[in-house]
Specification:
This protein is an all-alpha fold. It has one domain. It has helices spanning about 5-10, 15-30, 45-70, 70-85, 95-110, 120-125, 130-140, 145-160, 165-180, 190-205, 210-220. Helix 3 crosses helix 7 (about 130-140) and helix 5 (about 95-110) packs antiparallel against helix 9 (about 165-180). It is globular.
Length: about 230
């Protein structure tokens, strides 16, 4: 799941560090795909650092249920088949595109149907103290926490997730993700064709997309943090 879909499960929490923890694994991958941390079983004297760890574990739990859910399996496969003809000649594998596309569509639908508020999400991130984040990263044995913190400041300042309200920006987000691996993943025509496919697929999901969130909520062991 992407940032806002993870946030959905703890949208009512008052604890900014828990919210940060629920999206931190993906934030780290965006900052530098080579960063690999495993803080799952660590315990720290500072309660806020431990709360980040608890949020991190919630992220892993949600992803486990999401990737095994029939909704994800079905729709990532269907999107792979629909997108494949549009990206002939691209180095990007259709199965990779289908996987990422369904996650971005879910974020878009959460925003456009009012299930979550983006400003509230960013308010949580803005409330976290950088010293605490740096302590968590050092404790998890990240060699250069400042590298992430520089990315984190830019992520918060840009308010980039607001763009997910537009379907053409979903295509742009897909392109940005693919550009981490391939320099020029799509032509202009391929991007236009992908946008048309994503728009149609999104409309078809509007009446049923909450099923996956309800399915996961019913399985979660970790309670929402208050």
């Amino acid at each position: 799941m992407n940032f806002l879909s993870h946030y959905y499960f703890d949208r009512d929490t008052a604890n900014c560090y828990f919210v940060l923890g629920t999206v931190l694994p993906d934030l780290l991958k965006n900052a530098d795909k080579t960063i690999i941390l495993h803080p799952e079983k660590l315990k720290h004297p500072d309660k806020n650092v431990n709360t980040i760890i608890a949020g991190w574990n919630k992220h892993l739990e949600v992803d486990k249920y999401f990737h095994s859910d029939d909704f994800f399996v079905t729709h990532s496969h269907n999107l792979k088949k629909e997108l494949a003809p549009a990206i002939i000649g691209s180095p990007v594998k259709p199965f990779f595109l289908g996987h990422i596309a369904i996650e971005l569509i879910l974020d878009n639908l959460l925003i456009t149907t009012g299930e979550i508020g983006i400003n509230e999400f960013y308010d949580h991130l803005d409330s976290c103290q950088e010293d605490t984040i740096a302590e968590f990263l050092s404790f998890a044995e990240m060699k250069d926490p400042n590298k992430f913190l520089r990315f984190y400041r830019e992520f918060r300042q840009s308010r980039y997730l607001h763009t997910y309200i537009n379907v053409d920006q979903i295509t742009y987000a897909l392109k940005r993700i693919c550009m981490r691996v391939w320099r020029n993943p799509f032509t202009i025509q391929q991007e236009a064709d992908m946008t048309a496919i994503l728009l149609g697929y999104r409309l078809g999901l509007m009446s049923s997309f909450m099923d996956v969130f309800n399915n996961i909520s019913a399985k979660l062991i970790s309670p929402a943090q208050i």
